Amino acid sequence: MSPTTQPQRSRKSQKQSGKEREESERPAVQLPTAFFPFARYTSVVGVHTSLIAFTALFLPRTSLSSLFRSSAANGQLGKPDDVLLTLTENPLRTLAWICAGSCVLQVWWASWLRNWALDARAGVTEGADDTTRRTEQKLLREEWNSGRFAVGFIDIFVRCTLMYIVLQAFRMACLAAVVTSVVFSIVIILYGAPLNSHLLRTYLLGLLVALLSVFSAAYTLGVPSLGSDTESLVRRLTWIRLFAELSPRTPVERAILYPAIGTVLGCWVGAIPIGLDWERPWQAWPLTPAYGAVSGYIVGSLWALAINGVRQLYEIQLRENREAASAKRSEPQHTKKKGT
Amino acid sequence: MWSRGAQFICWVFAVHLIGIWLFTRGFLLTRLALSEVNSCDVSDPNCTLSPSYKRMVFLIIDALRFDFISPDPPLPSSPYYHNVLSLPAELTKAQPDRSIIYYAFPDPPTTTLQRIKGITTGSLPTFVDMGSNFGGSSILEDSLIRQLYEAGKQIAFMGDDTWMSVFPTSFAPNMTFPYDSFNVEDLHSVDEGVIRHLLPLLREHTKSWDFIIGHFLGVDHVGHRLGPDHPTMQAKLQQMDNVLRETVELLDDDTLLVLLGDHGMDRKGDHGGDGELETSAGLWLYSKTRPLVDPQADIPAHLLTNRTYPGASTAHRSVQQIDLVPSLSLLLGLPIPFNNLGTVIPELFWTGKQATSFEHALRTNAAQVKRYLDAYRLSPAGSELDSAWKDIQSAWQGAMEGQVPALTMNMFTRYALEACRMLWAQFNITLIGLGLTTLLSSSLATFAVYDSLGRIVQWEPWLDRIASMTLRWSGIGTVSGLVVAFPLRPYVKDVAIFDYVAFGAAIASSFAVIKQALPARRLEIGSISSIPLPLVLHTLSFMSNSYTFWEDHVIPYLLLTSIAPFVLTGFTAPTPRLRTRILFFSSLFAVCVRLIAISTVCREEQQPYCHVTFFSGSTITTPPGLILAIVVPIAFGLPSAIRQYLKISKSDQGLANILLPTIFPSVLTSSSFVWILEWMESSEVLGPSCSGALRLTRTTLAWLSIGTILVVALTLWWLIPLCIKVETSEPAANERREVTIIGFANALGSPYLIFWLIFFSLVFTTTQLAGQVILALATVALLSFLEVVDSVRDVRALNLAFSSSKPSEFLAQSQETRSTLSTVGLRFSEVTPIALLALQVFFGTGHQAVISTIQWKSAFILTSSLTYPLSPLLVILNSLGPVFVFALAVPLIATWNTPPLPYPPSTAQNATLRACLGISLYFTSLLLGSAISSAWLRRHLMVWKVFAPRFMLAALCLVAVDVAVIVGYVIGFGRISVAVGRVFGSMPGANDAAKARKSQ
Lengths: 340, 1000
Description:
The complex is a heterodimer.
Chain A: H1 2-23, H2 38-57, H3 64-68, H4 74-77, H5 80-88, H6 91-122, H7 135-146, H8 151-190, H9 199-221, H10 230-243, H11 251-270, H12 287-339
Helix pairs in contact in A: 2-6, 2-12, 6-9, 7-8, 8-9, 9-11, 9-12, 11-12
Chain B: H1 3-27, E1 30-32, E2 55-61, H2 66-69, H3 87-94, E3 99-105, H4 112-121, E4 128-130, H5 144-150, E5 155-160, H6 162-166, E6 176-179, H7 189-203, E7 211-216, H8 218-226, H9 231-250, E8 255-260, E9 281-287, E10 306-307, E11 316-320, H10 324-331, H11 356-378, H12 386-401, H13 405-424, H14 429-453, H15 459-488, H16 497-517, H17 533-541, H18 545-549, H19 551-571, H20 576-598, H21 625-648, H22 654-683, H23 691-719, E12 725-729, E13 738-742, H24 749-766, H25 769-803, H26 807-812, H27 818-824, H28 828-844, H29 870-888, H30 891-895, H31 906-936, H32 943-984, H33 989-998
Parallel strand pairs in B: 1-4, 2-7, 2-8, 3-11, 5-6, 5-7
Antiparallel strand pairs in B: 3-9, 8-9, 10-11, 12-13
Helix pairs in contact in B: 1-14, 1-15, 1-16, 1-31, 1-32, 7-9, 8-9, 11-13, 12-13, 14-16, 14-31, 15-16, 17-19, 17-31, 19-20, 19-28, 20-25, 20-28, 21-22, 21-25, 22-23, 22-24, 23-24, 24-29, 24-32, 25-28, 28-29, 28-31, 29-32, 31-32
Pathway (chain A): Glycolipid biosynthesis; glycosylphosphatidylinositol-anchor biosynthesis
Protein name (chain A): Phosphatidylinositol-glycan biosynthesis class F protein
Keywords (chain A): Endoplasmic reticulum, GPI-anchor biosynthesis, Membrane, Transmembrane, Transmembrane helix
């Protein structure tokens, strides 16, 4: 794949650098890339992974009854044995908490991803103010500037449309997550999960894997369909390229794909310790695959961050080199241009 | 030309056999268990002595090492286990005539089952006690318990449930309290159970019991789990000490207390092997009021052996643990068990200066040992005694004629014990090492050849060179083995000349092959991704007892993992048809695999997490009702399902058209009826009167179906193997005649499938009803997998064509170019699912890696009584048949949807050979994993229960796979290529092939 993608990417970056050269008259900020807000991405990943870890390790300990229990018991809860006990005494409750927590977190995370993906598609640069710079809004503002409608009305209309689009995407992503959660549950059963018992636990595991791996992708990229129009074809091909060929091209795709791979692999690896005859409470189905999935997700997310960072640096380096080279070359040309 | 690959495969098989032979001889010690019982008349003075004690309390503290009760523990003494269980030492000091401590030597293997057999029979149990009944682990030999039982004594039992598997029926039912023995995590429940039931029995006024066996497990479990140096050990021994104090309190005059450890433990608390600490067990005898030994006894020193515990300051009186058996028998006035090799303990019989009583005891003892040796000599295994027999005879002569009978008879019994010990009771590390080396080098050689065959385009002459090289170097190895053997023999124990020769031949030829094949191989970074993950995990899993006994659950997991890459490729397929095919057939495969995984007979370690589904219950062997309802339609419908698969490539012609609609449905259906009738007969659905008629009908049906397969189907296949139809259209004027061959595209695969079905039907006949359903599901899975592989290869070829600059040129290229081979040629990841499926079917058809799951019923489908060699053959077919049949299917991956042109089909032959080597490699790897783990863990608690049986299964599976591969490659593929050559051999060149393909 790489030989085919390479030229495109370099072409793209050439284009970018051309654009930047035009803007480089503005002195102050040296922009890292045109399309990806790397600094914010880093901080969001940091927060997101920590919150996911928190969800897995702490959230299940807050059962509704223990919320009312006084904090006097907290001192005891701190001991590692007790932590393990509260996490393992009711696997169903633990799983439900993790699912609930990661559902909220994934919506938040996916909205970031979606914004970046839309930004990238619209070509918005990071340097601009970041309050409401989304594609849709940009379009809307243009319309507003044309002044055909009353301000308040337009604003409401625009917001409604925007809401509708977002809600539609959100609804489809939720649908995708639900459908794939069923698919994942079936796959988990095929891999050997019990057929006639623990079905709810198996389903929750499937849901967790779906939330961690599919939801953000569906929200960001759109749900693939079997339609024959260009958009759904492109969307389908993107999904196949990502999840079957495992070859992401943009930072956002990496941020989607690597955690998904990590989740699935982690879930797979997590099944292994169940077989040991240690008779520990944490071997209860499906705690280890669930925690494997969560840790796989975190590792994948950080891995995506690392790869994106390295690529970012590499591209900066590349561009600087090229700029230096072209600056040297274009020195006379530049003056010539000025002259004309 | 077909002998070419065959020669190499046979060499691989031979080397495997040598490796298995060497390892097994070093590891699996065998002994024939004689079932004779000493039934002499108790009143006869030559039979036994008059009883000294009426009752006996026989307490076993598992893994009670000698120093735990020693009055003189080694220095520095440990606070955790020295002088904690101090009662024996205290009493011995206070009452030396009524209490005596021995340092006992338990014979290896020091595992509980073997030791229980040892201390009840007085013989030297090895892992495999061969006898008339392989079935349960119940004891076949005469034993102390049996003598007690036959004398009408009431035996109470409490503790380790291993006793229940050895003596299922001997204990008084209302005084039997077994507890689960393999839950090492549980330190207390067995001990508490024993205490709860032991003390009330002792308190009884009217003693309802004559013999109490109490087997404590806590000390052993603490050792395994925490090691001896742990405060828990101190608490445990303290608890034991308290129990003993209470027991001593409650003893009466007529009762002898025996306390012993069945074996010792090493420094980490494990046991099983022959280490010095493992073979150091404590033994304490105590009689409350009556003198047990005579302090005035003047026993000659040569009768009293001493042994120094490692680190102790002085030597202590020591005995063989099995000496207990004759001693206790005579003290209770019972005949000595027939198989006993122990010698009476002098102190217990010697009174004053006169040795009359002792001599009487010893004479009885020696005569019994001689009787046993004579019987063993006459048995089929008698030749084992060849080397020692002369000396045994002369020792016996000496014992009879000696001036000092006490001395000479003692010498005789001791000599007999030593001779038998040499025969039966030692691991031979040298042979184990030689076996492992052979297996390892042979698998490296096989891998090197497998790998090179995938790279070398001109592979035929290359393989010829390899084959002749194996012959030459085997010869060289034989000679050098002989040369090395003679100088080494005096120094290396128990390695025969043949072992040297076989090892030399195997290792020399393996290294020659490795050296020859290695230069063709380049290690690339890309090869990391081609590491067969399922194989690696599967092999490593044998290092853990959990994964070994949960293997039937591990395999579907690995199988699904191995199919995942195909599914991913399926999504990338460039055409919707290929995508649908791959996804549909992989799903079908996965569903079949999951359904097969439902069927299981649980092994005991899997309890309580496992439910028997192969039968309708865990204690009955009738098939489940659902199976009874569906098996006949499934057996009848399976051939037409297979036909549907053949229809995909239009190859349901020719032979397939003859056999699939008529012969196979009737054969499979009648096989099902054989087992349905068997169920009706055994569960007496129609009442007992019909059983004769049912028996006759099912015997006839079984003969009919097996006869039809072997005679009709096999003959037809041999005569007209091809599944093609040739249509000739009438030539129009001036035009050449056009020949259409229907079924051309699968001309190699379809006849092989028919060939495979013949063997499949044989196995189907010997398999019980639930297993037949499983076999049908597995066939569907296999065929689905073949379609998946075929489609995935198409995807790869298409992608390769798209990515090359000139697709048309690529398509015109010969099939044999290097890049094509590596893209669409056979890959190891295509062999892995077949190997896993084979084992999955083994487990699904009601087998486990334990001897007790052998389905003896299958021996009697053709005859109503045991017939040689038919019955063993049927049992083998039933047990190893699934593995054999699915290994036999492996050439299908190489031949499925492979057109026979250009002729000769060199690429297909190469792929077939590689597929055969691949599956052999897979099973060799499993064998290596299980052999290494059982050799490495030979001290493990479960080595004889988990690891060694898995090793035996792996060895048998490898043999079955090798045989299947040879049959498949030489007979199946060989015959088909000849037949194909007859039809297509005259066709000139590839252009015609292309034309034929078009008109398919």
